[in-house]
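Box 3.1. Reading complex inputs
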Amino acid sequence: MINFKINGISLEANKGETILTAARRNDIYIPTMCYISKTTPCGSCRMCVVEVQGVDGFILSCNTPAVEGAEITTNSVALENERVNIMKLYDVNHPLECGVCDKSGECDLQNKTLEFNIEKQNFSTRDISRDRQNWGLINYNPSLCILCEKCVHVCNENIGDDAIEIKVGGYSSIIVPKDADYLDCTFCGECIAVCPVGALVSSDFEYSANAWELSRVPATCAHCSAGCPLEYETKHTGVNGMDEIYRVKNNFEFSSLCGAGRFGYDFDNSAPKNSDAFDKAISSIKNAEAIRFSSIITNEEAHILELIKDRLGIKLFNDDARKFAEFMKAYSSVSGKLHHSGSLEAIKQADAAIIIGSRIATDNPGVRYALTTAARHNGAKIVYAHPMEDVLMQNVITQFMKYEVGTEEGVMAVLAHAILADADLDESEKAFFDDLDLGYIYAETNIGDEELEDMMKSFARSKNRVLIIGNDVIAHECSANIAKLAALIEKYSNFCVVIVPREINTLGVSLINTLDKDEDLENVVGYNANGSFVISSLEGSDLAVPALNQQEGSVVNIDNRVLPTNVALKFNGYTLNNIANALGIKKDNTIDYTKELNQDTGFKSVLFDDLENYLAKMGEDIRGYILDEVVCEANGKLDKLDDLPEYNGTIVYHCDPVLQFNAHTNETKQLEKDNFLRGSAQFCVAARISDGDMIELSFGNIKIQREFKLDSELKGTIALNPTYDIGIDANRYRFDKSKIVRVVQ
Amino acid sequence: MKNEQFNDRNISNDYFKVDIADYPTTDWGKFKCALDRTFKLELLVGLWVVLREMFKFNTHTVKYPEEKMPIGPRYRAVHEMKRLWESDTERCIGCGLCEKICISNCIRIDTKIDENSRKEVSEYSINLGRCIFCGYCAEVCPELAIVHGGEYENASDQREHFVMYEDMLTPLDKMKAGTQSEFEGFGAITPHEEERVKKTPLAY
């Protein structure tokens, strides 16, 4: 700890902590314009200057660590003058359109101008004409831009798109798309969030409402398992309209949000109440042999489904959560703990990471942003093991480890072998590694000995290591053995493991429900899933139920954190709880079940209303609670490696495009619905098709028609097949041997 | 300094005391009073005065509707939407403050971006059936776009029929003629009010 003084007040700072963060932690105000907590300080605004006794000139508090015994002043007359002059310069020719500006008072520039009492413009320059630019979902107005660089920094350091930069030109400097005429990025919209003025705005939201007209609803994003915190902002539409979500905001100071969260908010269900359908639903459930449901539901709903199962003695199908539960069961049998040890925060803090079995940038942007942060801030070495390269991860990863499709088990085995070379393994584990036919595995997986050596060399000095395991592995035939290998790595090395669940509440459902293996039965009621009677929040259902932004309840995200989410929009109809009540499982509200969630798997007996949903002053995540650690028996044994499978011919990888995740994101207005089969030039040759062809794709017993698109960013003979629009069996390994036939129109 | 001028609270020498008898207190007095009131037809005395004055055509009241009192600028009748003198476009910038401040929740406004990338008010409605004419909307408006007019002659079976947005907006021909009336500001007084102000009678 370092002891120093600010304005005569004694403070303590951690080693390496900057003066600004120490001051903020102790509620001492230092004005800033360009500082944003989640990026490295860029020092472009120079507002945060302070005086240090015995040091000539001003010191930037944002990037200067506190030193022992320093005496710092934050508010002398000289500093005040300096700041006033900076503000005067910021205000030069700034358009006086605050009345119509989209920022509508939530403006840093306006706040500081008033704070420093800048009443007139003392400096002047000839104003120049700057055109507004439309960048798709984002609009940029250069006349309002104050060039604080926040957008550029988050884009590079947190998101990893690195899509915008400053075109330097003195007074005529502007933000431009990097090396391109148009903005080519993943449209996370984080630049909009951090913009302190109204220069970068959502093109859909622009001029449609003001900050003071919108009511904020704190919630949790429903699209992927990262469970990012966000706020839905709602307002009535038009003169007689109902409430609608106008935009989504996040606490950009500490957390990031992807474009699906930010722009894909209108997946609410506005179907009218239909009591006939409700009666039908009740009788269908009574007659049903099983309920099939998706993991895009709350813990409370999952609990109700479990109660219905108990009461009616029917089966519950959810292959996504079942596969995850099986994987976790195998993992626990070696690690001795029910939950994985890592979290997004652990990834952010990591200086070494291996990611296997996931196209993570589109599977879970939260993990991608955490990896980007780790790479930029800690110089983390990131090994990306996957059969396909991903352009989005290109400037984040340090080593791409390409393996053959289907050989994940072998890859994990050699990874474990390399990582645990010096570990103190027990007899059977040692025997497993001794038994490995490394030559065969290297040949089949296509991973070279030297690649592993390089990896271990680059990891040599790292302290915080993370192993991230994706969905290809969970749905893999040999997932149990892979899970055990992952647990082994965690047990005997300093790696922590993050297993990426597929949907928002896959983890929660896997802990709450006892699931049965999906069978093709005749009478299956689907709850947000297929069935002979469909109860769903999506269009075309037999009984409409509220979507996740119309419900209160909790979900469990990748951090093993139970997160509350609230009702952003009203739903006028029936919920699962109404159905349960009709079946004799009585409770007033769905959230009455929150305190009754399965405590054997780590849930706490906490009332829903006691769950917090915000980030604290210094960004501490105090949303909900973290599942209690549950110790379980560690008696799992590794199975001997079988022959590794071979995948030849035209292979498709079931993988959603950027910002699409599931049928809910497919319903949203702003998100691009790109449903092409994308493949490389090499794939074209192998499948004998060309760009723009209509093709019929068949895999397993599924046949679909898609347009093929040649993607110059892809390599190899694997094509990407989106699943958000067709829905895909979660049980299915994500790489599929396929047959592709050109359709003649 | 002498206080005489302050102590004299009689504002005019024209004031005089009316000779009114006290109420009777004895039973006989009360009985006589009742008899007088019943049979002396004093009622007709009053009626005669009215009739007499009516034919003299010397009325002191305003002869509405031929004659109307000037309305004070602070009078809060049905709202008006003003236009900019420079460009004749609407003054309203769609900030939505009137909607926010409205305590009876009767204003609804919708804005959008127009083809010139400017903010456009696409819908604006005041439900006069709910409006309590408190004047907060006019007070909060940063552009003096919404003001209360002086038009108090509205008749309809529903108050919300009083006015449409198009009627509230200053007509373009009026703008061309330069006759848009301007809100004179809070605290402005009624025209010719100074001449009409008399010394307040303070004797009580």
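In summary: The domain at 651-742 of chain A is CATH 2.40.40.20 (Barwin-like endoglucanases).
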